[in-house]
Amino acid sequence: MQQSVESLVRLLESYRGRDKVIRTVCYGSQLVGGALTQKAEADASSQRLGKSLLLFSAQLSHCRTVLRLFDDLSMLAYSHSYGFGASEEDAGIRWISVLTNVADQLYYPCEHIAWAADAELIKVRSDKWWLFSTVLWGTSLLLGIFRSLRVLLLLRRKLKKQERAEGGSRRSHLNREIRAELLSIFSCMADISNAIHWMPPGFLWAGRFPSWLVGLLGTTSSLIGLIQMNTSSSELSDSTVMSSQGDIN
């Protein structure tokens, strides 16, 4: 019990860890709140609880938006350190990663302008800037799927070579990497489904998801993110992990 509490405290003490926890609670509240408010047979107290959870979820989402006002420099530092991916062995992964960094970098100023417009700090319409930020987020997620598919292809090739060489420990490591990439694809697919839902009406299934489904997809991707972060911290404690992209929305 004490070890679990200590792990949670360490997670909350880091910016990325705290953001992932807030994101999980945000979408979890939307899932439960949406389910409660949608039940026609629910009593008045359940309806009130559901509405309160949806309001709580909206406040947590706003909290994350405000915190992202300070993410531009960390994203810029990551993009600068990655550059054109000279350290990458595969050209496909390199250029997909570069395009992902560009989309992530552009996302932040668009969201900042939209937030400032909603807060009436600047005199512009926020809707188009929210649209730009959603498109950039969806683009980043789609590129993330392409990157994971490319990585999977390369990992499977390596796995076949190891099977011929009978390298047991190396095969086990490759299988873990394959499972991690499959989880990343599943997480990106859940998030991109929500990104399409937040597009203008008429675009695929935009605006058609009930609150509980948005919460379910977001909670799923958030839990995957927490699992991956925990795995990364335990297996790669001596290396730097990822950029600030991850769970933008």
UniProtKB/TrEMBL annotation:
The protein's name in its UniProt record: Peroxisomal membrane protein 11C
Spans through the membrane: 129-155
Localization of this protein: Peroxisome membrane
Origin organism lineage: Eukaryota, Metazoa, Chordata, Craniata, Vertebrata
UniProt xrefs under InterPro entries: PEX11 (IPR008733), PEX11C_met (IPR026510)
Keywords tagged on the record: Membrane, Peroxisome, Transmembrane, Transmembrane helix
A UniProt-annotated Pfam family: PEX11
PANTHER family in the cross-refs: PEROXISOMAL BIOGENESIS FACTOR 11, PEROXISOMAL MEMBRANE PROTEIN 11C
Primary location class: membrane
